[in-house]
Amino acid sequence: MEKHLPEELADRAQCLERECLDLRRTHRHMKQFVLTVNKDNQVALNLLDSDRRPRIFLGLEPDGLPRLRLQDKDGNSLFQAPMEPNPTLPSLLKP
Predict the structure, then answer these.
(1) In the chain, how many domains are there?
(2) pTM for this structure?
(3) Across residues 26-49, what is the average pLDDT?
(4) Concatenated DSSP letters for 45-84?
């Protein structure tokens, strides 16, 4: 390991702090995306609100059909495609 003078270490620490802050700013919205792959290789993309509740689901159901679902903050379905008479939570969102 290289030996550095205290001033050099302070400069490097400040540089790292700036880089970390820049990364946080750049990727702050990415915290709300969740990519899910379960043991059956079903894939889904979920968009979460600021309270980390699922609001948009785009993925495949167990039968292989694609599903798009928009939910309110309480998890109630606002829109779902394909349409179902009694929509349920997409399987990848179930606890």
Answers:
(1) 1
(2) 0.54
(3) 78
(4) EEEE-TTS-EEEEEEE-TTS-EEEEEE-TTS-EEEEES--
Residues forming a β-bridge with 66: 60
For the stretch 41-78, pLDDT in tens is 678 898 888 888 889 999 987 778 898 999 999 989 89
- The closest of 29, 84, 82, 79 to 56, measured between CA atoms, is 79
Report yes or no on 80 lying in a domain: yes
Residue 2 inside a domain? The answer is no
C-alpha distances in Å from residue 87, one per residue of 3, 34, 43, 94: 63, 22, 19, 13
Q: Is residue 82 part of a domain?
A: yes
CATH number for the domain harbouring residue 45: 3.90.930.1
Query: Is 41 within the bounds of a domain?
Result: yes
Helix, coil or strand: residue 35: strand
